[in-house]
Amino acid sequence: MTQDAFSKTLITTASDQVFVDMRREIVEGSIEQGSKISEPELAKRYGVSRATLREALNRLESCYLIERKANVGCRVVALTAERLIEVYQVRSALEGLACRLAADNMAADEVQSLKQLLNQHLQTQRVKEGESYYQEAGDLDFHYRIIKASKNEHLIHLLSNGLYQLIRMYRVQMGMVGPRVSKAFDEHLAIINAIENHDGELAELLMKRHISASQSNIQAKFDLIAAQKKAAQ
Amino acid sequence: MTQDAFSKTLITTASDQVFVDMRREIVEGSIEQGSKISEPELAKRYGVSRATLREALNRLESCYLIERKANVGCRVVALTAERLIEVYQVRSALEGLACRLAADNMAADEVQSLKQLLNQHLQTQRVKEGESYYQEAGDLDFHYRIIKASKNEHLIHLLSNGLYQLIRMYRVQMGMVGPRVSKAFDEHLAIINAIENHDGELAELLMKRHISASQSNIQAKFDLIAAQKKAAQ
DNA sequence: TAACCATGAATTGTCGACAATCTTAAAGAA
DNA sequence: TTCTTTAAGATTGTCGACAATTCATGGTTA
Q1: In angstroms, rounded to a whole number, what is the distance separating the alpha carbons of residues A23 and A168?
Q2: Which of A69, A215, B39, B142 could form a disulfide with A88 if both were Cys (CB 3.0 to 4.6 A apart)?
Q3: Which helix (H) or strand (E) is B68 found in, with range?
Q4: Residue B98 in contact with residue B152, Cβ under 8 Å?
Q5: Which residues are A11's β-sheet partners?
Q6: How many whole angstroms separate alpha carbon A231 and alpha carbon B116?
Q7: 0.90 exceeded by pTM
Q8: Residue B1 is inside which H or E element, if any?
Q9: Phi, psi of B50 (to 5 degrees)
Q10: Rounded to whole angstroms, how far apart are CA atoms B110 and B123?
Q11: Pick among B158, B160, B207 to test the A interface (most A CBs inside 10 A)
C-alpha cells in the first residue's frame, strides 16, 4: 500500500494503480486528449484484466477525464475553449466558497504555514524563472491548501478528487507562461492577507478574480492557436 | 432502451437499470441510510452478476449516495446534520451560479414556460395542501429547469447527476412540512421575476437565500429529533 | 452514382469462478 | 480477566470466457 503524490489517494488495489497511472498520462498528454480508448489494448498495456481496467475507467469518468457511451466506448476529454469557460465558472464558484470558509476557519498557525509555503514559491520562482512546471505544482499546492482549510469535506472531495485533475490538464497542456507567473504570486499574497484578517468576503472576491485571470491566460492561448490556424490557411 | 423519470438518464444496459433502481431505493429510504451493502446479497436480489452490480455501485458512489473502502465494502451515506451543512454550502454556491447564468441567458419564451410551471404548482398545491411529495417533485423540477437554463453543461452534470440525488434524499427522508410549502412558492416567484428582468445578481442572491431557508427547514427537523432523544433519556 | 441492406470483425457488457484481504470468534498466554 | 494470536468464514478484488451490440466492408438495388 502506497500513496499518490497529487491527490493523496491511497493506492491499495491494482485498479487504484491503473487509475493513478492513467490519470497522470491523460493530464500530461501522454494519452492524447480527445482520443478513443480501447479497453483490450489498455488492459494489455497495464498488464491487468479488463474488469480491473474498467474499474479504473469508471473512476476516471467521475473526475471528468474521460467520457463514456454505452456499447460504444470511452474517449479522453477534449480541451475545448467552451469547456474551459464552463469549468472555470464552476471552479470560481467553488474555490471562492472554499476561500471564504478558509478565511472564517483558519487558525493563526495554519496561516503562518501557508505564508511560509508562499515564501518557498518565491525562492524557487526566482531560480526557475520562466519554467512553469514547478510553479504549476506549487501553485496547485497553494490552492489545495486553501481548499483543505475550508474544512468542508464535501467541497474538498468535489474539488480535489473531482475538478482539479481537469484543471491541471488544462494548465499542463495549455501552459502558463510569461509575466503571469509573478502576477499570480502577488495575487496569492493578497489572498493570504485577506484570510489572515478573517475577511471572508474579500478573500472570496480576490480568489474569484485570481481564477478569472488564470482563465484569461489560458483563453489567450486558445486565441493564439486559432489565429495561427487562420494564418496558415 | 427506456428513460428514467428524474435525471432523464437513458437506460440501455442492465447496470443502468440496477443503478436507477438502487438510487430510488436509497433516496426513498427503502435501503436504509448508513447501512452496509452486501454485494452478493444485492446481486441476487436484482438478478444480476456481481460485475454488473459493482458497475452500478461505482456510479452510486460518484453521486455521493454510497461510500466505498477498499477490501472492506460499501455503506449507504448517512444523513447527518454536519453533512447537511456541507452539502448545502456547495449547493448554494452552485445553484446560485446556475441562477445567475439563467438570468443572463434565458429567452423570453423559456421564462414564460417556467412561469406556467409555477402556476401549475400553485394549482396542485392548493389541492394537495399539506402533502409534501408532489410539491417536492415539482419544486425539484423548478430547480432542475433553472439549472438547465444555465446552459453550462459541466454545471448541469455536476448538479443533476451529482448532487441532486443526495439533496432529494435529505428532502424525502427529512421531509418539508408546514408553512414552508407556500413560502417556497413565493420565493420561486421572486426568483423568476429577477430572471425575467435579466438581473443576474439579484437572481443569484434570491436563490441563495431560498436554499438557505430550505436548509434551515431541514436543520429544524434535526434539532427536533435531537430534542426528542434528549427528552426520552 | 448513391442509398440501402447484409455479413463479418471488433468492441463492449455480463457472467461465474478463483485469489487476496478483511472480519469474527475461539484458543492460548500474560 | 484481558490481551494477543490464530484459524475459519465471509467479503471484496481480479481473471478469462461468452453474449450482445456496434462498426466497417462489400454487395445489391433503384
Answers
A1: 11
A2: A215
A3: strand B66-69
A4: yes
A5: A2
A6: 50
A7: yes
A8: none
A9: -65, -35
A10: 20
A11: B158
* CB B70 within 7 Å, strand D: yes
How far is CA A136 from each of CA A126, A170, A175, A184, B139, rounded to the nearest angstrom? 14, 11, 9, 11, 43
Confidence of residue B134 (pLDDT cuts 50, 70, 90): very low
d(CA A216, CA A152): 28
Residue B10's DSSP bridge partners are: B3
Q: Average per-residue pLDDT in chain B?
A: 90
**Amino acid at site A100:** R
- Please report which confidence band the pLDDT of residue A70 belongs to, taking 50, 70 and 90 as the band edges: very high
Q: What is the pLDDT of residue B6?
A: 58
Q: Which of B3, B67, B90 to mutate to test the interface with A (most CBs of A within 10 A)?
A: B90
Whether the CB of A11 is below 8 Å from some CB of chain B: the reply is: no
Helix runs in chain B, H state only: 14-28, 39-46, 50-62, 81-105, 108-127, 133-149, 153-156, 164-174, 180-196, 200-232
Secondary structure (3-state) at B75? strand
Residue located via cell numbers 474551459: A84
Task: Using alpha carbons, list the distances in angstroms from residue B200 to A115, A122, A229, B97.
Answer: 36, 39, 36, 9
Average pLDDT, integer, range A191-220: 96
AA letter at A211: I
CB neighbourhood size of B213 (10 A): 13
Q: Which nucleotides of C are covered by protein (CB under 7 A)?
A: 11-17, 21-23
What pLDDT digit, counting tens, does each position of A88-128 carry?
A: 999 999 999 999 999 999 999 999 999 988 888 777 765 55
Number of helices (H) and strands (E) in chain A: give both, helices first: 10, 5
The answer to whether A203 touches A102, Cβ cutoff 8 Å, is yes
For chain A, where are the E strands, in sequence order? 2-3, 10-11, 36-37, 66-69, 73-76
**For residue B222, what is its C-alpha cell?**
434535526
Interchain CB contact of B78 with A (< 8 Å): no
